[in-house]
Amino acid sequence: MRTEKEMFHMIIETARTDDRVLAAYLKGSRTNPSAPKDVYQDFDIMYVVKETESFRREPSWMDVFGKEILKQEQDDDFGYGERFGLRGHSDGTYSWLLLFEDGNRIDIGIETVEVMIRGSNRNKLFVPLLDKAGCLPLSPPPTDEEFYVRKPSATRFFGCCNEFFWSLCDVAKGIARDELPFAMTTYYTQPHNMLEVMLEWFIGSRTDYSVSCGKLNKYFKKYLPEDIYTIYLETFPDSSYENFRKAVKRSCRLFHEVGVRTADSLGFSYPQDSENGFLKYLEMVK
User: Which whole-number Å values give the CA distances from 112 to 25, 27, 256, in the listed order?
Assistant: First the structure.
């Protein structure tokens, strides 16, 4: 695998030698002082360019980065561009996700000066690499503070509790009907998601809302107490209905424990009636 130094040299030299490129900057986890460093980190690169059309028309300019073994680009069906609403804006900005045969990955984008000034492709995780035109903004040291867990309002806290128990009723009904795809998909997209939201707030309450749980809560193991994290792992079921029911019970136990403690830290009352209502329904469909 090429080293970080080799990759950055290639990325910067590509920007330096291409007259169409005005500046280059780094974003993402490699700029984040709080993110653990390892060989799996992507190189999230943005080139500020005079125009985007020639880059899109002839993508061979990226061949210098190495042999690709997998690629996705902004306008691909079902890809990241569709998920994040980026399709159809190629005149101002475009990007590619590139995986190379040595295991390195570059997520590389291009944007016009006008788009760069608006700042839609960047946040406070921003490090200039090259500025040939003097167009990049001055910025403070990179920080992930924009992604810190936010203290919830009362309506959001109670809404989370309500959604958790209400949607678990659909999971229980799906299990009772032997509708595994419905039950499993509902479980992960609704109540389990609310459980993770509550766990984020629980972490926030323990850290004075000064940390980020990372993309898709990848830092839960770092911030949750060991006993809580162990129960959290038990909330992931397999295709066995017996194990699925156990996972639902583990989810309820965990939601209750962290929900009560989080509510207390916020000065709220935990909605025990909602939990009792779900448990009563669970007995009905058992």
Answer: 13, 17, 49
